[in-house]
Amino acid sequence: MQLQHSRDFSGRDKRGKLEALSALCGELLGVDKVSVWTTCISGNSLNRVLSYRRESGLDNSPRNLGREQLGDYFSALSAAEIISVEDVSSDPRTLTLSHCDGDGGGVASLLDAPIFDGCRLGGVISLAAGQRRRWTLADIAFVTAIAGCVSLINSHEAWLNSRKELDYVTHHDDFTGLFNQRALRNHIKRLIEQSSRALPEPFALLWIDIDRLNAINNGMGLHVGNEVVSEVAARLRGMLLPGKELVARVGGDEFAMIYRFPKEVGTMHGAVDAILEAIGHPIMVGEQKVQVSVSIGISFFPYDGDDISTLIRHSESAMYHAKASGRRQAQYFNQDISASAKARFLLESQLADAIANNGLSVLYQPIVANDGQRLVGAEALVRWHHETLGFMSPAEFLPLAYEAGLIAALDQWMLERVCRDIRESCRLEVALPPVAVNLSADAIMDPQLSDKVWGMLHRYQVKGEQLELEVIEDAIKGDSRALRQTLEELVRMGIKLSIDDFGTGYSSLLRLKNLPFTKLKIDRSFTRDLPQDVDDCAITLSILGLARGLGLEVVAEGVENQEQEAWLQEQGCDYLQGFKYHQPMSIERLRELLIPA
Ligand code: C2E
Ligand code: CA
Ligand code: CA
Question: Which ligand is nearest to the CA of 394?
Answer without folding.
Answer: 1
